[in-house]
Amino acid sequence: MDTRSSGSGSDGDAPTHIRIGLGFPEDQTLDVRISPHAADEMQELLDAEGVYAGRIHEASASQQLAILAASFGGGLGGVAAALTAYFHRNRHKGIKFSRGDTSIDLTGYSDEQAKGLIRETLEELRKEQLERDEEWRRIRGPRVEDDDQEN
User: Which domain holds residue 30?
Assistant: First the structure.
């Protein structure tokens, strides 16, 4: 996906791309990939909800999207609230919301429609992350810490 803006507007006018994906196995996080011009605002919103878990840096020639880790360990409410708040603040700008191969332009969505889509997407991802975690534990086998806790 090309995340560069077309046209001569400033970054403030550039559309925002938000791609939600799975985090690392067993860390109870989701990756929030977002256009660099919007990363600081999203980080502040995630932090205000108590779910900001840090920035992720991938080794690549060019990073088109900033990556923020968002914790869902205490539930999805904080992540959903941060994403919904970002949409509400920026609904007059173009926002493309993506997960996997599905990408939706949220232009024209009401706050309630966006909130519903965000919650549905996050719940699906949480389920996938938990399934991935279980598969990871099955493949990895017991850890020393797991054995120590049982004794």
Answer: 14-141
